[in-house]
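User: Can you fold this complex?
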Amino acid sequence: MAPPPVYNQRSPSPSQPSGKGEVSDLKMQLRQLAGSRAPGTDDAKRDLFKKVISYMTIGIDVSSVFSEMVMCSATSDIVLKKMCYLYVGNYAKHNPDLSLLTINFLQRDCKDEDPMIRGLALRSLCSLRVANLVEYLVGPLGSGLKDSNNYVRMVAAMGVLKLYHISASTCVDADFPTTLKHLMLDDPDAQVVANCLSALQEIWSLEASKSEEASREREGLLSKPVVYYLLNRIKEFNEWAQCIVLELVAKYVPSDSNDIFDIMNLLEDRLQHANGAVVLATIKVFLHLTLSMTDVHQQVYERIKAPLLTLMSSGSPEQSYAVLSHLHLLVMRAPYIFSSDYKNFYCQYNEPFYVKKLKLEMLTAVANESNTYEIVTELCEYAANVDIPIARESIRAVGKIALQQYDVNAIVDRLLQFLEMEKDYVTAETLVLVKDLLRKYPQWSHDCIAVVGNISSKNVQEPKAKAALIWMLGEYAQDMQDAPYILESLIENWDEEHSAEVRLHLLSAVMKCFLRRPPETQKALGDALASGLADFHQDVHDRALLYYRLLQYDVSVAERVVNPPKQAVSVFADTQSSEIKDRIFDEFNSLSVVYQKPSYMFTDKEHRGPFAFSEELGSLSIGVESADNIVTAQRVEANDKDLLLGTSEKEESRGPGNNGSAYNAPAYDGSPALTAAPQTQLDLVSLDHTPAASVSSTSLAIDDLLGLGLPVASTPAPPPPPALELNPKAVLDPNSFQQKWRQLPISISQEISISPQGITALTTPQALIRHMQGQSIHCMASGGQAPNFKFFFFAQKAKESSNYLVECIINTSASKAQLKIKADDQSTSEAFSSLFQSALSKFGLP
Amino acid sequence: MRTNTSPSLVLELLQRIARVIKDYLGVLSEDSLRKNFVLVYELLDEVIDFGYVQTTSTEVLKSYVFNEPIVVDAARLPPLGPASLFMQGSKRMPGTAITKSVVANEPGGRKREEIFVDIIEKISVTFSSSGYILTSEIDGTIQMKSYLTGNPEIRLALTDELTIGRGGRSIYDYGGSSGSGAVILDDCNFHESVHLDSFDVDRTLSLVPPDGEFPVMNYRITQEFKPPFRINTLIEEAGQLRAEVMLKIRAEFPSSITANTIVVQMPLPKYTTRVSFELEPGAVGQTTDFKESNRRLEWSLKKIIGGSEHTLRAKLTFSQELHGNITKEAGPVSMTFTVPMYNPSRLQVKYLQIAKKSKTYNPYRWVRYVTQANSYVARI
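Assistant: Here's the predicted assembly.
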């Protein structure tokens, strides 16, 4: 047996010698062996080749022995050949001139008697990645695809794809895709079929933007005959190829329910596969096939539960996490289905943090009337745990459960018990939660305040917790005997308070306290305003100034601004829109689920599949109303002094005088300028930082205050006359549209409201298309059904061929439209946007 | 990032690659990789082509791969460190793991005909502070590693009274089933080589085992079972800056069985500065330690014989006075162990039949049972 490579004897330190001397030694020795026919030559060559490859592996440049390696490769020893191919594949790309040397012997090997050598040579030939050598590939590839040996055909099918990536035109001109298609439908070897399928999917997806035919061919892969052909052979494929086939089947649109049941019955036993990737791919097929059949869809959930739980508990922590992420997605869609399995989501002490954290999220999601008691009991165990990060997460989880349940008595008691544990981090987390709880359930204020009042502010150091405590001091100044004095002592230490958030809260709290208990708070308020005005932090300074001037102007106005009657927060808004969630669901069994983001947010643009109407429109999920959208707000009497107006992050509340329509997020409520103005002021006295999400509405409102008057869709006033004129007879063919859509950046992305008349008129996509056409905005494609419609519009400038492209997704139940505008001439995209919005706002008007 | 791939596929693939390398090299370690990197390159080239997985079957790879492995001595190898993440095998195959290459020939020239079947059960149990079982689960695998030439067909018969799925009953519905000999699996899955044709009738799996190590079947059980160990913990304050801990472990399995490599751990209050231990008189093979960095008590026992009981007492000294309940500052107690020839689910391999090639053909068959703690926790 050959001795281990040289570097083994040395220390494995990263600082390897440059190897110059060794490399020239090797060169000499290789040269000597090249022509030798003495017995034992092959063994000597093997040793040398191993050395060369070991140098290559540790990063020493051995490209200088290229010609010697090629000379030595004239051998029938397959181990030597393989090492040589490895070497050539590594250096060819950067030494295109030298690679020419290899063509000869690779081409010769492609005709070898031994199919292994034919296959290996062909694979190496296709892996050279040298553009000007592609002409030498076509011949060997062509015969490789027709080879009698399956290994060679398998390699050749992948080779076509490699060629396509080096030179697409050479590949297409040689008609290789068509050959692959025939091979895919005929070949007796399943791996050849699988490789053809993989190659064709990639090639036709990339070609689809260039040619109609390729686009049709790509659709053809999803046709019933092809899908059934592959499904009928599913057991011949190895597990990895099964994944590829299943991924394809998940995109198949079944013709009727028999079709769906046939496929599901055929794939049923794939759910018992030991390979998690196969199981998840099968689950994706089941979920997507049954989307439109509510009952069967529920049965699918029941069926996939056990396999998923098994995968979750049997693999490595990493695998568990991947499966858990998928379970999490499903739990969010159908919490009740998993509610009896909650014990599976209990944390085990040896699990890594990331698994535990996700399990806690699952527990909050599945909590309902029947299991809350047990779940909260378990969470309380974790809260008392020595593992501090998990203890914190557990407390947050208890809080979340409290916020989503109406029967919160027991939970509030538990939370208050946390405060008695006297652990700093427990107290801190709990305070933040109690604050949120009070904003939703003001009726609990008495119990909470009694306990919170006992907490010494000196034991609370974390800014979030301190801010929460201060907020409660301000908000419940009347019920907390010491409130003015605690605030006063906090204000005395103003300079030591590093967190601007805390100082902002101090200002607001002392204002509220002053308005309720003026004599006791006057001094503290004076100190706070003085300190605030001298504060180096802009926001703190500004808020102090605002309060100061408000008080100067009129105390009753100040009261109305700082301490208005508030409504309880009904639902803390979800961080993710339901559209995003649906997109993630469409991308089941992918990283999107792990990242909780749709793929377009994390994949590189240039590697994203080409823009395709059918797919985009097909993926529009239809009518899956997320539970977060349903706001069951409880009305609280208007004269209750403790009412809150939701101004914090991630929350939503009913705007005053709004008759029960639920907004998705405050940022997008599209309030007309008139109501936006007071909202701006309220935002300024909000207890938290203005969240990023509401920046647009705030700035919009401020702009309105300053009289800039950005047009808003529902603004009754007519928009300014458009400076932009559109060509009423614009034409654009679908291919150029797709190409442009891919190339151009998004200039404007916006969500706007649609008037009730517009929603009523939008019974079919055609209605809107006709209307927009009257405004010189033409439709390229449309799809979907109520409540989700999707349109692609385009328009052209009147006098030049400058295009505007629009993606417009309308959700009729939310009365919202999401616009994405792309323009050849970016400078005019604003103007076009207002034109488009004004056209849209006229829809449905008589 | 280029593509939005399936995370399960990638993780599964990494694990399979590790398993293939282990099949070839006997062990997967830094040293074995260094000695065999050309072979590993060769394997990887055949496993993945242009990003697409071609095969991960050692069986199939054998016909494509020509380098011979250089086998390293497993005994003197350091563990692989972080890369062992992907070696599920090492976690599942304790102590006695076979470290023999599937492809390399024995020094004598001929391969020994043998087949290993391991029934490995990882158990998770959480006891409440009053000793009541809060949750329990068994994650089991029937793992096979075949060194048989010619790939004969194998029949593996399992316990007759085996039920799969818990019907409409709630998974945590205890009682009823215990006492009878029935084994109820919540769910299970199988390797693709397994034929289930007669499984429903007589609980027999038939398969042609591919070369190398692979799981024939994975299963999950939440049916109640008798935990192998009972843990009793007592922690009491003894004066202002002191406390006493008493840990008692009772082995509740037959005396013919011996558990090994037992470690009991318990986090102590964070003000603990010193711990003095007191082992039971005549204790052998037991060590104790106080890990100051993470305030953890560690008690290791080389072996525990079934039916026996072991106690550890510890006196804690604190640097400052504790406020609040001491039980909230310490614990829970966790335990790791391995119990060979014992499996709490009582799932048995009744027989292992190898299709005979000739009268003299009688390969070695090894059927082994082993139980390991996954998360074995007692709250205090």
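Helices of chain B lie at 7-25, 30-35, 37-47, 58-61, 88-92, 199-202. Confidence is low (pLDDT under 50) at residues 76-97, 168-179 of chain B.
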